[in-house]
Design brief:
- The longest helix has 20 residues.
- Helix 8 crosses helix 10.
- The chain is an alpha/beta fold and about 325 residues long.
- The structure holds nicotinamide-adenine-dinucleotide.
Amino acid sequence: MDECTVGFVGAGGVAVRHARHLSQFSNVRIVAVTDPVTAAAESFAETTGAAVVPDPEGLLNASPDAVYVCVPPHAHGPIEEQVLGAGAALFVEKPLALDAPTAERIADTARKAGVVTAVGHHWRYSPAVDLVRELLDDRPVRLVAGSWIDRVPPVPWWSRRALSGGQIVEQAVHVLDMIRLLCGDVVEVNAYANATPPGTPDADIDGATVAILQLQSGAVGTVTAACCVDWKHRAGLELHADGLSVTFREDCITARTAQGTTQRSLLPDDAKRAADRAFIDAVAGNGSARGGGLVDYEEALRTHQLACAIATSAVHNRPVKLDV
Ligand SMILES: NC(=O)c1ccc[n+]([C@@H]2O[C@H](COP(=O)([O-])OP(=O)(O)OC[C@H]3O[C@@H](n4cnc5c(N)ncnc54)[C@H](O)[C@@H]3O)[C@@H](O)[C@H]2O)c1
């Protein structure tokens, strides 16, 4: 495929970021955009040259090769069904949906459609992943501690449970995805929430959550999340194996052994751009990107199910087992 045509559903913050990366790829043309907020669609169109269309149907009339779905968590479902029904490749931002059943239905449709899918779990595309694997050198992880302590992001839907699904599903899912990638699947979770919402107007999500994880490998873990501070305090994970501790954040990886500590800085945008590159390469028929290892919908579904299990455990005050 000489040229890959792309449409966007949703023209907010993350859509603008993807479009910025795509504009750097010579084989991509953004053809159409739709967003119920006309000003957002028009502003996006101005910088990308895309045509503003009224709805996903109008977007699919332009026959794009691929569609980026960059909408808030509550809006997932019908959009993906339409895109997959039209046979276009699908890039969808995390989280996959507010709940597990919606994402499971979309996964089923994607399986039957047989098109290229990808999900915005860009942490997986960080060079730090290979570094951690090299450092571990097949040593099993015994303990993993993931955390996301941050401010409430400046989008109006984020602190409403019915719109975002809460911090674990919406945000800490990046960290959960890395835990699955580097340590394997989680078989049981037990979570507790501090149910007092953050101080933003109309907030009803939990202000903090803690979860204990039992992994299939025998490793144990924790995930902590809070959205009650006014700064990005920490987002990442710590892994501990025999004779090795690794701290992994989007901008830095630190390894400690008996010989000392080594640190490497990372540019978070590199991983984000690599996620777009891998998707476009797959759509264009060049599956060699990252050895063909795209984070597809099926794989992201397992991470989403883990996030939903933690959210369920916190609401019902009981452990939740996962099918892995
Ligand atoms: N992977 C990442 O690093 C990353 C970063 C930021 C956001 N995200 C994810 O991307 C999603 C969007 O986040 P954002 O920051 O762009 O939010 P945003 O609020 O800035 O933008 C969302 C846009 O979607 C539009 N929208 C809402 N319902 C729609 C619908 N039914 N059809 C079409 N458009 C619709 C809104 O009008 C808005 O313009 C969220 O799920 C978020 O978690 C991922």
